[in-house]
């Protein structure tokens, strides 16, 4: 088989998959503002994308964001209700098209709820870890600022007080010893000279 024939077969297969997928979609009439419609047209032209596909994908993402923003308890209940409703819609589509069953497309909301719980727990752990790291950093900075100041204040008084105190004591001791020795020596010298005069 040539490459051109295999390419045509691929196109047929892609078309069948697209039709099968689109058969599971439920049509909805939506009115949008002129500004939103202008942006939809602009984006679809820029990326050469069908407006219907663009709106469908944007709406799907918006619904997912809204679901994630629900309170956990309410989100769990609504996820269960939505999955049950999706099953019943799929059964209706299959009956309309005369099919035994239609494969559901889109998000399984119960599974998405579990994923939201995991993401929330991970976000809490990351936030707690960041707060702990920030607290440790602040404590380290405070200790770094206080440590040099303490060492300087302790070292300076020792140098100032000890050196003069020791030198004064030493000088006083030398002067006292000199004063005590000097009169004794003078007296001892004067006495013999007095004796020698009188003798």
What features would you describe in this structure?
The protein has 199 residues and is mostly helical. 84% of the residues lie in helices and 0% in strands. The protein has 5 helices and no strands. Helix 4 (72-97) runs antiparallel to helix 5 (109-198). It is elongated, with a radius of gyration of 48 Å. The N and C termini lie far apart (157 Å).
Keywords:
0% strand, single chain, mainly alpha, 199 residues
Question: How big a fraction of the residues is strand?
Answer: under 5%
Query: Topology as H/E string?
Result: HHHHH
Structural class: mainly alpha
Can you give the helix content as a percent range? over 70%
DSSP helical segment count: 5
Distance, first to last CA: 157 Å
- The general outline is elongated
Overall pLDDT metric: 78
Low-confidence stretches: 182-190
- Estimated radius of gyration: 48 Å
* Number of distinct beta strands: 0
Sketch the major β-sheet: none
Provide a compact summary of the structure.
The chain has 199 residues and is mainly α. It contains 5 helices and no strands. It has helices at 3-22, 34-46, 51-69, 72-97, 109-198.
How do the strands and helices of this protein lay out in sequence?
Elements: H1 3-22, H2 34-46, H3 51-69, H4 72-97, H5 109-198
């Amino acid at each position: 088989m040539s490459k051109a024939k295999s390419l045509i077969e691929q196109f047929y297969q892609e078309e069948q998959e697209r039709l099968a997928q689109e058969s599971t979609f439920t049509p909805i009439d939506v009115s949008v503002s002129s500004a939103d419609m202008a942006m939809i047209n602009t984006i679809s032209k820029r990326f050469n994308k069908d407006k219907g596909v663009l709106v469908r994908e944007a709406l799907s993402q918006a619904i997912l964001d809204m679901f994630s923003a629900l309170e956990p308890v309410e989100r769990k209940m609504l996820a269960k209700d939505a999955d049950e409703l999706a099953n019943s819609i799929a059964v209706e589509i299959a009956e309309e098209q005369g099919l035994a069953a239609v494969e559901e497309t889109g998000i399984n909301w119960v599974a998405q709820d579990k994923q939201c719980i995991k993401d929330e727990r991970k976000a809490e752990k990351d936030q707690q870890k960041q707060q702990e790291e920030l607290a440790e950093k602040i404590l380290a900075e405070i200790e770094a600022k206080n440590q040099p100041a303490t060492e300087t204040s302790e070292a300076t008084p020792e140098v100032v007080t000890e050196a003069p105190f020791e030198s004064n004591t030493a000088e006083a001791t030398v002067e006292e010893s000199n004063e005590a020795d000097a009169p004794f020596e003078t007296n001892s010298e004067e006495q013999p000279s007095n004796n020698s005069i009188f003798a």
